[in-house]
Amino acid sequence: MNLEQIMNGLEKKHPGEVEYLQAVREVLESIEEVVNENPQFETAGIIDRIIEPDRVLTFKVPWVDDQGKVHVNLGYRVQFNNALGPYKGGLRFHPSVNLSILKFLGFEQIFKNSLTTLPIGGGKGGSDFNPKGKSNNEIMRFCQSFMLELWKIIGPEMDVPAGDIGVGGKEIGYLYGMYKKLRGEHHGVLTGKGLSWGGSLIRPEATGFGAVYFAKEMLATKGETFEGKTVCISGFGNVAWGAAIKVNELGGKVVTLSGPDGYIYDPEGISGDKIEYMLELRASNQDVVQPYALEFPEAQFFAGKRPWEVKCDVALPCATQNELNEKDALKLVENGCYCIAEGANMPSTPEAVEVFHDKKVLFGPGKAVNAGGVATSGLEMSQNAMKLNWRREEVDERLHHIMISIHETCVKYGTNEEGYIDYVKGANVAGFLKVANAMLDQGII
Ligand code: NDP
Ligand code: 2IT
User: Fold this and answer.
1) 18-37 helix and 423-442 helix, angle to the nearest 10 degrees
2) Which ligand is nearest to the CA of 262?
3) pLDDT of residue 238
4) Is 197 helix (H, G, I), strand (E, B) or coil?
5) Ligand 2 centroid vs 374 CA: distance in angstroms?
6) Any atom of ligand 1 within 6 Å of the Cβ of 372
7) What are phi and psi of 64, to 5 degrees?
């Protein structure tokens, strides 16, 4: 496999799709060896086929605001690869959304979903719609208009969307309502549904819980636990919230959270009511964390900065892509942080990942660490298919086992001769092999 030739070709075909090209390069770099050892992959054109999505749907989403003004946003669904099962992956509503970001997320999702042990392929979608400051009625009208196009290409055995940034339980409800009306059927076409109409217990917490279960396994390789550890978290969304709850449960102390406006440092620890306050901040749709420091005066707000300058043992980036750069990575390690587990998708830049690997600290990439969210979506699909609901403990136990199993897989495929675990390599190689072998079995399609 000639990596540079493949990347040059891809750059020519998709100029400027920075995030997508970044994600493809990262995966190809770590699977190069295993591809070269398996000439059957080359013969079947696996790499050329896996790096391009099966199809991309782009559509316009017109909607009317509360003042009667018409707006038009762009909607997308990227169906990347369905070798292992129906396309599966979230919908992101954020003004930064473009095709490159959704292709990067869809590509990552293939390998993440493969790691979960469940039969799900990879996809992603979303819109450049900005939910910030919108009323519930505006969000509802937008979701309904979005679904008027999306419903044509999704279905419980075809493509099963879920939430991501800007898409939580409320949006899934509006999307599901419109789908049900159009299709005239009540089935598990979206995950993250409300509990009384097909949702699974633990799904809202699952990504954050899963990330902390994974980090717990990482710490265990050093004979350590979360007990007494200081933890920096970024973001204040769904993933950050779940992670903060679980870190507290395991005896750790969360001292930061962040938003686009800056970060909060709370030396007394973000626990109990303070975690629930995060939900209020998110629900306000205002995109700011500063009010936390007014509500809890022991906390400080640092405008326009990221939390990576705060001394900690464990860092959990849970906001968005490329939010932790080389300088941040050096600062974290210099301050004694030795375990970084990515709750978000690709939050660390390639240069930051290089720092973590050079300094031989524990570094878990998003596609392994945050796989608990989609894994629990998979469990929601199973419950929908069986038309029953598992108990909270049952879902949590399955999630916990899945995260332990993903960690074991990463260790198996990522441990080098010196005993250092390269979790990036482990996750990419294991995720890839399963999909590549399924593609071989299914012929050139
Ligand atoms: P939420 O919308 O609940 O929260 C996202 C957080 O990131 C918010 O704090 C948000 O603030 C912030 N954020 C988003 N974009 C930017 C940006 N460009 N710059 C700075 N901050 C930003 O989303 P989730 O918690 O669901 O998602 C967080 C991360 O976890 C994402 O990378 C997502 O892909 C990933 N993830 C989510 C899963 C899930 O099940 N929800 C599963 C696996 C991964 P704001 O909105 O104000 O900009
Ligand atoms: O990035 C992700 O894995 C998600 N946003 C969750 C996807 C899902 O289908 O639950």
Assistant:
1) 70
2) 1
3) 92
4) helix
5) 5
6) no
7) -115, 130
Query: Distance of CA 259 to CAs 263, 274, 332, 429, Å?
Result: 6, 16, 19, 33
d(CA 108, CA 23): 7
Longest alpha-carbon distance in the chain: 65
**How far apart are alpha carbons 141 and 397 in whole angstroms?**
38
Question: What gap in Å lies between CA 303 and CA 57, rounded to an integer?
Answer: 38
Residue whose CA lies nearest to ligand 2 atom number 9 = 89
Q: pLDDT at position 420, please?
A: 97
Considering the chain, tell me which residue range(s) the CATH 3.40.50.720 domain(s) occupy.
206-369
Ligand lying closest to the C-alpha of residue 124: 2
pLDDT given at position 117: 94
Ligand 1 centroid, distance to 347 Cα (angstroms): 10
Work out which ligand 2 atom sits closest to the CA atom of 377: 10
Which CATH superfamily includes the segment(s) 206-369?
NAD(P)-binding Rossmann-like Domain (3.40.50.720)
Residue of minimum CA distance from atom 3 in ligand 2: 374
Instruction: Give the integer Cα–Cα distance in Å for 345 and 357.
Output: 18
The CATH H-level (homologous superfamily) assignment of domain 53-187 is Leucine Dehydrogenase, chain A, domain 1 (3.40.50.10860)
Read off the pTM: 0.96
What would the mean pLDDT of 370-391 be, rounded to a whole number? 97
pLDDT band at 333 (very low <50, low <70, confident <90, very high): very high
| Residue spans in the chain of domains classed CATH 3.40.50.10860 | 53-187
309 CB neighbour count, 10 Å cutoff: 17
Tell me the chain's radius of gyration from C-alpha atoms. Answer: 21
Distance 11 CA to ligand 1 centre (A): 27
162 C-alpha to center of ligand 2: Å? 6
SS3 at position 293: helix
Give the C-alpha distances (Å, rounded to integers) separating 409 from 100, 389, 400. Answer: 29, 29, 14
**Nearest-5° angle of CA 176, CA 177, CA 178?**
90
Locate the ligand 1 atom nearest the alpha carbon of residue 240 and give its number.
Answer: 25
Relative to beta strand 339-341, strand 362-364 is parallel
The H-or-E segment that residue 332 falls in is helix 326-334
